[in-house]
Amino acid sequence: MAIVQEDLSPTVPPHPEKIKSVFDLRLGKHITLQGSASITPAGVISAGIAAAVMTLALACLASSTRRRSQR
Questions:
Q1: How far apart are CA 58 and CA 52, in angstroms?
Q2: What range does the domain containing 60 cover?
Q3: Res 34: pLDDT
């Protein structure tokens, strides 16, 4: 049985809606930081849902702590 390898075309990006950012940060004369980040729209939505769920969980914990201290 022959092994077939498919080469991905370098002209087609894996995520056409990818958002990419590159930045340079200079602190004083001797410190320079370079960074980059990339995210897709689905990643933005997932991060928003995760933040909302964590906020809801923290609100539930805070309200239960207040109820426990009032008793």
A1: 10
A2: 41-71
A3: 93
Main-chain phi, psi angles of 42, to 5 degrees: -65, -35
Residue 60 lies in a domain: yes
SS (H, E, C) the chain: CCCCCCCCCCCCCCCCCCEEEEEEEEECCCEEEEEEEEECHHHHHHHHHHHHHHHHHHHHHHHHHHHHHHC
Residues in the chain with pLDDT values less than 50: none
Q: Which two tokens stand for residue 8?
A: 């991905």
Q: How many domains does the chain have?
A: 1
Return the SS3 of 38: strand
- pTM beyond 0.70, yes or no: no
What does the alpha-carbon distance between residue 48 and residue 54 come to, in Å, rounded to a whole number? 10
